[in-house]
Amino acid sequence: MSGPPDAQSNRDFARTRVLVTGAAGFLGSHLCDALIAQGHDVVGLDNYYTGRKGNLTHLLAHPQFEIVRHDVRQPYWGEFDLIYDLACPASPPFYQRNAIATAKISFLGALNALGLAKRTGARIFFASTSEVYGDPLEHPQTEGYRGSVNPIGPRACYDEGKRIAEALFFDYHRQHDIDIKVARIFNTYGPRMNPYDGRVVSNFIVQALKGDDITIYGEGGQTRSFCFVDDLIRGFLLVMAAPRDFTGPVNLGNPDEFTIRELAEQVIDATGSRSKLVFRPLPVDDPRQRCPDISLARERFGWEPGVKLKEGLARTAAFFEQELSLANAS
Q1: pTM
Q2: Strand 123-129 versus strand 180-185 pairing type
Q3: Rounded distance, CA 110 to CA 104, Å?
Q4: Stretch 206-233: mean pLDDT, rounded?
Q5: Max Cα-Cα span within the chain
Q6: Which of 56, 237, 243, 325 has an alpha carbon 20 to 30 Å from 217's alpha carbon atom?
Q7: More confident residue, 286 or 74
Q8: Is residue 4 part of a domain?
Q9: Which residue spans within 218-260 are E strands per DSSP?
Q10: Which H or E run includes 108?
Q11: Hey, CA dihedral for 173, 176, 179, 183, is it positive or negative?
Q12: How many domains does the chain contain in total?
């Protein structure tokens, strides 16, 4: 089966058969929604280690969607035009829970997905991460920055796993002429995040909604940028639809930078909470600053985030409030 033609937009693709690994996850489920909306036939893979079945309940009866329980460390066989490789735990508590499994998922998941792309001629997208930049010495981070990563630290299973997966993607491109697209994702938030995944946005919102103290690690001066999920998924589609000669890597994230303390204050405003801020020691290898340079995405695709943090937090808090209400009622 030949791969998809080059196009300026996914709307230019004929109806295609698409594989999404990590389909029941936060990002994967939103991507499945977008692909179904464009008329594609979508097969999702997930072993539900961190993915949640509830994220896909609304798609289960759709005639163009199928979900398969599968661990990407094992090969999967099928015929596909497009492959999105998203499978991997993404929050520090989850990926550190079984560090060896996390490293295997990044490496073997990429290896198996690339093998499938080689056999079928599919175009393949890899969801990499800003964690490949580590605790950066360059700010904001451009795609040419090679990073400052501790290869033996507790976060290395994820950081280095994504780095070796990127290497595999580019080796398959060079050796086998595989049509690859690599995007480096910066902090993303929105509905369908797991409220208890340990990431800063979910932690803060859940603590605020419960009226608990909001826990800040360090003094709160470390910075992050926060991209709303709808903006990120739009970026995924544009990268996948780029001409064959564009492989990436390309940064996808919001260049608006906030301190962690500023984020906590905005969460309190969004939820109307009376929570107080408390401070704890900073975890090992936690980056001091992280912010993308998205010049390449702007120039190639005209892409940039549109949802401001205040709006995105309000929408995310509304989702979490509903989740917590359902949990309390059960």
Answers
A1: 0.92
A2: parallel
A3: 9
A4: 95
A5: 58
A6: 325
A7: 74
A8: no
A9: 223-225, 227-228, 250-252, 257-259
A10: helix 99-120
A11: negative
A12: 1
Q: Which CATH number belongs to the domain containing residue 88 in this structure?
A: 3.40.50.720
Has residue 86 got a pLDDT over 50? yes
Is position 278 within any domain? Answer: no
pLDDT tens track for 111-169: 999 999 999 999 999 999 999 998 888 999 999 999 889 899 999 998 999 999 999 99
Tell me the HSE value of 168 on the side-chain side, using a 13 A CA sphere: 23
* 3-class SS of residue 244: coil
Q: How far is residue 57's CA from residue 318's CA, in Å, rounded to a whole number?
A: 19
Which phi and psi (to 5°) does residue 210 adopt?
A: -85, -10
Task: Name the residue among 190, 192, 189, 191 with its Cα closest to residue 55.
Answer: 192
Judge contact between 91 and 198, C-beta under 8 A. yes
Q: Which of 84, 158, 172, 189 is catalytic?
A: 158
Contact indicator for 256, 312 with CB cutoff of 8 Å: no
Residue 285: its pLDDT value, please?
67
Measured between alpha carbons, how far is 41 from 173 in angstroms, rounded to an integer?
Answer: 26
Q: What dihedral do alpha carbons 69, 74, 78, 81 form, nearest 10°? A: 100
Tokens of 286: 């936690």
Give counts: helices (H), strands (E), the chain: 9, 13
- Region class of 218: left (phi > 0), else alpha (psi between -120 and 50), else beta: left
Tokens representing 126? 């890899």
Would you say 232 and 95 are in contact if contact means Cβ atoms under 8 Å apart? no
**125 inside domain:** yes
Pairing of strands 257-259, 223-225: antiparallel
Spatial distance between the Cα atoms of 14 and 7, rounded to a whole number of angstroms: 10
Read off the DSSP letter of residue 9. S
Distances (CA, A) of 76 to 65, 196, 252: 17, 30, 28
Token pair 């400052």: residue: 148
92-95: long-range contacts (C-beta < 8 A, 24 or more apart)?
Answer: 92/155, 92/158, 92/198, 92/199, 92/283, 93/197, 93/198, 94/49, 94/50, 94/197, 94/198, 95/157, 95/158
pLDDT at 2: 36
158 catalytically annotated: yes
Q: Closest Cα partner for 189 from 13, 327, 319?
A: 319
Is residue 109 one of the residues assigned to a domain?
yes
